[in-house]
Predict the structure of GNAT family N-acetyltransferase.
Amino acid sequence: MSEEVAIRLPEATEATALLDLLEQLQRESDTFVLADAADRMTVAQEADQLRQIQHSSRHLLLVASLGTELIGVCSISPTTQGHVGELGVAVAQAYWHQGIGTALVDEALYWAETASTLDAVGLTVQTRNVAAVKLYEKLGFERTNMPMETVTTADGEQVTAVQMVFSIQQSDDQ
């Protein structure tokens, strides 16, 4: 690649491109499922949400871009536990195995440690997604004591998954 991949906050003007990327990611991966996939946001709603996220200490949305093309996304959203954020990450299939997912997650964890009010970041990962499990472990996530669970893929398949958590080390000056 002659251009470098940038990991950055998306602009509200990229709402259409982001919605298109999210649809593409759902088609390309059976491990990426949007919680509200049936209720696609309008471009205006997405743009408004992007503006709100930029001012939050509990929400994060990052994109990976190659020039003007969005090729990956990573989010941290608060859970019902309040002090724990849920991580989600996906990269366009043409860019798999190039370190983009790692860079997205690494940047999200840096934000969680330095700019968020979260105590931990958790995720649910399908056990068959061995590469993802290894990535999360390499970045400092640990499996929780929660029993394995069954999740439903976008295709309706039932697969086992495990919960993992990254504990945020609070510094004395925070």
